[in-house]
Structure formats: structure tokens, C-alpha cells
Amino acid sequence: MKKRILAFLMVGILGVGLTACGSGSGDVSDSSNAGGATFDANKRIVRISHAQSETHPEHLGLLAFEEYVEEKLGDKYDVQIFPNEILGSAQKAIELTQTGAIDFVVAGTANLETFADVYEIFSMPYLFNSVDAYKATMEDTDYMDKVYASTGKAGFQVLTWYNAGTRNFYATKPINTPDDLKGLKIRVQQSPASVNMVKAFGAAASPMSFGEVYTAIQQGVINGAENNELALTNNKHGEVAKYFSYNMHQMIPDMLVGNLKFINGLSDEERQVFEEAAAISTQVELEEWDKQVEEAKKIAQDDMGVEFIDVDVEAFRQKVLPLQQEMLEENPNIQDLYDHIQEINEQYSSEGGEE
Ligand code: GCU
Fold first, then answer.
1. What is the reported pLDDT for 331?
2. Can you tell me the distance from the alpha carbon of 312 to that of 79, in angstroms, rounded to the nearest whole number?
3. pLDDT in tens, 110-163
4. Whose CA is nearest to atom 4 of ligand 1?
5. Between 231 and which of 109, 115, 129, 227 could a Cys-Cys bridge form, CB atoms 3.0 to 4.6 Å apart?
6. pLDDT value of residue 15
7. How far is it, in rounded angstroms, from Cα 201 to Cα 203?
């Protein structure tokens, strides 16, 4: 099913490319404009790929993005959202965004690390002291805009961020202490820092794309994974992993990434609309996130039989804290953002922010 939709899209894109090449008339001045030809010759189709289901906060945020762009520029743009990794895993969809085959993708920063190593910082275990400090960092747009521009050379840039919660271990066996991780095989995102973190806990790290995790747990290829609560419900991992431990090792944001040529090709007014749409999508996503996490916990516990385990977070933190210094030594490009985050961490702990 997935393959058929992808094949359909690729044929469409290829067909458009061929028409554009074959015309030789100069009428088809920009193959990107030809994207809408199949449906409405006057509209440019804007394709957005993401990895989540249609009820996920990110999808709802993107619907608000679509609505806003079409309300303001609907005579020119037709925004289409492709959920559930229909167009491929985050990494594949980033490649499609790089080449301009699609225009936007939502991807976790772990997937951006190979394009701009400043993004490695978000994979650093226990980087943020609290959810408040995490949100304040991400909402500091003056600072983050510099970070967002860092993938320019790769042909894309970040427009906004989405909350993807706090990451925790979950497995087919209970994890109560760091020692319980010893000998387990745990899926991580394709990020060296996350691989190192899991190894430092004494487990074996198995990097794979998000869409493969359910089957890998089900078939016993891995013993568990690490993610937020929505992975249990929205992605159904709670059907196959019944123990979720609140050790809170990372807060890794998702990013709305756009093809740079497309963004730079917009007029000033259009660009403003897309930027406003991005900001609105984040607002919607954040509100939905808080609501859905609460619901997800209930559903996972009551309907799926998942046990939520409160652990001694400090014991987990101590185990992997040396990785922070190692990462800073290995990658000087994260130092500035690290220092900036430490200031925000302090600000929130001195304000009595708990968590
Ligand atoms: C979360 C996050 C995704 C990420 C996934 C993963 O669901 O929102 O962007 O890809 O975790 O662990 O791969």
C-alpha cells in the first residue's frame, strides 16, 4: 500500500520533470510550478511528509498550517499532507525535501545531525533540567533562527519546532534501575549520541527507522525502545511492550523542515504567510500535545495494560552524565547552544521550576 502511493507520487514527479524537459519552450519556467499540473494547472502543490498518524498532534498542527496557507494564498497553493511515513521514513523524506521532490518534512533533530552537527546537542542525555527550560529554549526564536539556518548548505532549513515530549525506555520487561538495561537490545534513532547513551547504560543499541520498531519488538529482534507516551498509543507500541519507565533521558524536538529553493522562491508576502502558518501549527501542536499525552497514558494503562514505572531518575542521569562532557569535547559546534541552555536551565531552577 505504502509502496504503491510512493510509486504513484514518484511517477507524478518524474512525469512532470520529463514534460518540463521536453517542452523546451521556456513556458515551463520552473519545474516546481509544474507540480500542480495534474490537478489544477494554476495551483502549486505543496507536499508535506511526516511519520505520525492522522490523529497525532503534529498532523493536527499541519492541518492548521494547511488551512492558514490556503485561506491566505489558496488561489495559488494547494497544501497536501502525507502522514504515516507514506513517502518514506524521515531520512528518506529529508532526501526528497533536499532535492525538491517534496517541499516540507517533519523530522526529529536526530535525523538532522548528519547535515548540521549543531543538532547533535538535542541527543545529549539529560540536557534540559525541566520541560519549562526545554520549551523556553525552543521558543527563543532569535537564538533558534541561527540554528535553523545551519542546514542551508544541504538545501533545506527549519521553519519551526514541534514538541515530541520526553523520551523514556519501554520494554517487554520492567526496567526499574539502570542495571535492568544491561544485556537488553534497545532501538534508538539513527544518532551516534543515542547509540552511545544506550551503550553507557550497558544495553545494546539497535538504530532503525521509527516505522520498523513495532515489528522488531513483536518479533523479539529488540527488547524495547525509547520514546514518548504517544508511541505506545498512536504507534501502538504498547501492544507489544508493556513496561514504560519514567527515566526521562532526552527531550528531542521535531522540526518542520522546508526545501530552501522553495522558501527562497516565495515573495516576501508569501513567505510571511508560510512563516505565520508555521508558528500557528506549533501553537496547535503544543496544545494538542499536552492534551494527548494525558489521554495516551490512560489508554495505554487501561486499555493496553501498560505499566508505568516511576524510577529514580537521578540514578539514570548519573550513569550517562559523563557523555555530556565527551560530546562537548568531540563537537565544538554545540558549545554555544549548550551554554545558552545552561543559562536557561538555571533561570528555571532558580524560579523554583520543578521536574
Ligand atoms: C518520535 C518523534 C519522531 C521520531 C520518533 C523516533 O515519535 O516525534 O520524529 O522519528 O520519535 O523515535 O524515531
1. 98
2. 46
3. 999 999 999 999 999 999 999 999 999 999 999 999 999 999 999 999 999 999
4. 108
5. 227
6. 39
7. 6
Query: Is residue 259 scored above 70 in pLDDT?
Result: yes
Tell me the CA–centroid distance for residue 210 and ligand 1, in Å.
6
Q: Do 242 and 305 meet the contact criterion of CB atoms below 8 Å apart? A: yes
| Atom from ligand 1 closest to the CA of residue 230 | 7
Is any atom of ligand 1 closer than 6 Å to the C-beta of 51?
yes
Quick one: average pLDDT of 245-253?
Answer: 98
Atom in ligand 1 nearest the alpha carbon of residue 90: 10
- For the chain, which domains are there? 2-118+128-163+253-292 (3.40.190.170), 166-252+300-350 (3.40.190.170)
**All three cell numbers of 231:** 508511541
Q: Ligand 1: distance of its center to the CA of 3 in Å?
A: 21
Residues 69, 262 contacting (CB under 8 angstroms): no
Ligand 1 centre and the CA of 186: distance in Å?
Answer: 15
